[in-house]
Each structure stands twice: as C-alpha cells, then as structure tokens.
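look at this:
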Amino acid sequence: MEELRWGILSTANIAQEQVIPAIQRSKNGVVSAIASSSGRAGEVAEKFNIPTVYESYEDLLDDPNIDVVYIPLPNHLHQEWVIKAAKKGKHILCEKPVAINVEQAEEMVRVCREQNVTFMEAFMYQFHEQHNRVKEIIASGEIGEVKLLKGSFSFYLEGRDSNIRMDPKMGGGSLYDVGCYPLHVIRHILDSEPVTLFAAGEIDPQYGIDISAFGHMKMENGVNATFDCSFDMTNRSDYQVIGTKGVITVPRAYRPDVFEGGEGLIIVEANGQSREEFISTDQYVKQVEHIVESILAKQDPSYPGEKTILNMKVIDACYESMKTGRIVNL
C-alpha cells in the first residue's frame, strides 16, 4: 500500500501524545519531518525517530518530500499556516477549531480548493465506530422518535496563568476548545443544522474568555438540542439522545482513547430494559488513514471543508448570542 509522508508543524502535546504515534501506527502514513519555532524539534524527532528536523515551518513546507502536514498550532495561527501550506501544495490535517470565525474558515477552504489540496479539520472523535452504531440504533426505532440531544464536554483547567486556552488573542475559551465537540456531535448525529440558537456564558473576569458556555438549538428536523462546556467543572465527555420510547447515552463520546483499546460505551434504556454495548476503535489512526485514503483517491474526505464552515458558523452564532443576550437565527 502506498504511504504518504507527513510533516508536523510544531511540537504541541496533542502531536506528541496522539497524532504522531497514530501516523506511525497507520498503514498508509509515515512521519518524515517535524518543525518547531521553539527549538524543541530535535528533541521530539529523537523521541519518535523522525528523520528530518527543521527550525522553521517555512523550511518544512519547502520540502518536496512532504506530502501532507499536520497543524496543531494555537487556534489563532491556523488560518495563516493552512493557507501557506496549501500554497506550497501540501495536503492538510488541521486541529480544531480550524479558525476563530467563519470568514477565516471560508478563506482557508477556498484557498485549499484553488490549490487542489485536501483539507480536513481534526475532529477525530467522529471516526470512532460507536457513533455509527448510535445512528443505527436511532434508525431502528428502538428509542422511538428523537426529541432531544444533549451534549457536554468539560474539565477543570489547572495552571490557568500559563495556559493558552485562557488567552483571548490566541483563540482561547471553553467554546473553542471543548464546546466545539458537542456542537459538532449534535449536527453529526442528527444530520441536521440549527435554525435558531441561544447561548449564555460565564466570562472569566481576569482573562476575558468564556470559562463556561451553555446553550439551546432548534434543529431543521424539529429536534431540540442543548449543549454545555467548561474549564470549571469536573471531567465530562458525553451526549444523550432522548426519544419517545428510550434513551441512548454515550459517556465516552469524544475521548474513548483514554480507555484501554479505545473502548467506547453505549448505554441503551428502552422498554423497561437497559443494556451496554462496548465498541473499540483507534480513532486517531482511523482519522489519519481516512485523510490519506482520500488524498490517494483524489476525492473529498467524509468531513470536507464545507462541513467545517458550517460548524464554525454555529460557533460564531454562540458568541453572537452570548454577547447580545438574544436568540440568533441561522
């Protein structure tokens, strides 16, 4: 099987802990180079046996032996480096959220289209098979007609004084960092877009970012959806689908990789009975292999740029509603 050669832009923790190892576990990718502006590229290259080290992102993008780049830079830098990578002919996997507003996302997708490069936002969770199983259960009618979907993602953020998640100039805030997941899962599981949205936030008085956010959406298909996210609550990473006959709960929705073998869990309560289904998937490897397969087949990934724009539109609407205190029509 043909392998594509990856370049990594930055030594970010997510790259070291998840994506570089996933590329190395994949059947169709190899990590060929890494670049860092911090001077740590050599250290990380030695750790992961990466053959080529660059001290600037530009030098990596100029390497003709790199086919695809992974960009885990801070949110406010995504637009700049996605566009630069595209103009160098590199295919791109970019961490979420890809931008800090929909205008940036639209420009990034447009440039990638113009340069004929594949671009995908790294919502890795969607490649876990538990979500396809949830859709199957819904389609079977076991929980009846879906009336409500509730999504949550939170954790208690330590060391706030030195964390970029607290910096508004770098795209900080709970909605960008973790809230984007429940917003995405609502749209993904329901296969529907919101028509109205209301959101409220708790703004940190020192840093000026949303430390927590809460909201409601009415979807095109008539289903109601609620979401919440926070840097100020205990660990939660779940969603619930509530129907007229039962409930589906997915308690390991976004990070099942922290469980042995990437084991996801689905709890179905219907007809007075409850059961558990365990499904294992290496979601980071699936994500890597999917974008490489899409590049080799010269076709859009299952999560193309146009869907990224839609999710960014919803995030923008949340911030508009939080600022104005009003319902936003999408």
About this structure: The two ends are 44 Å apart (CA to CA). The chain has a mean pLDDT of 97.
